[in-house]
Design a protein that fits this description.
The chain is mainly alpha-helical. The protein is 65% helix and 0% strand.
Length: 170
């Protein structure tokens, strides 16, 4: 991902329409990453009896990842002012790379948790939905993303989910 961090944006400075309610952003990395990994673990636990559902979850993740890769490439944004970088201890320990700050449009963390909400059933849906509500709040308060990055994630994710449902589930 070195190319991602080295490229410069040729866009006009992006002004976020929603100001951050905190005077100075705080680091919510531990909470945000705990939510993301908890969402994954709950989804694996919930669908351990239905491997086809796990396959559809992975197909949706793949499609969202491809959309996100294209959007990041086509829309190079600089990090919002006063960004507190989001640290993922698992990824950083595996790659030995610093956190990325130019992988903004659209929020992968928001999309990731939403995928698990879309596939959740019954009681698990409520837990996944609660974690989905918390994820963008913490990302926004940390200023990891612009508001538009977080707003677009559910639309792209639901579109990818619908494509997977139409192509593979129906």
């Amino acid at each position: 991902m070195g190319w991602l961090e080295k490229r410069t944006t040729h866009l006009a400075p992006f002004v976020d329409p929603l100001p951050n309610p905190l005077s100075s952003p705080r680091d919510f990395s531990a909470v945000s990453m705990s939510i993301v990994y908890m969402s994954l673990l709950l989804s694996i636990f919930e669908h351990s009896d239905t491997p086809t559902t796990i396959l559809h979850v992975l197909e949706t993740h793949t499609l969202v990842f491809m959309c996100r890769t294209v959007s990041i490439f086509l829309l190079p944004l600089s990090a919002p002012p006063c960004t507190v970088l989001l640290h993922d201890p698992l990824i950083e320990s595996l790659t030995h790379e610093p956190p990325l700050k130019h992988d903004l449009f659209f929020s992968g963390h928001t999309a990731f948790v939403l995928i698990h909400v879309l596939f959740a059933r019954n009681f698990w849906w409520w837990i996944q939905a609660f974690m989905f509500v918390l994820t963008p709040i913490f990302l926004f308060l940390q200023r990891v993303h612009y508001a538009i990055d977080i707003y677009m994630a559910p639309f792209v994710t639901y579109t990818c989910y619908s494509i997977v449902q139409h192509l593979f589930v129906s």
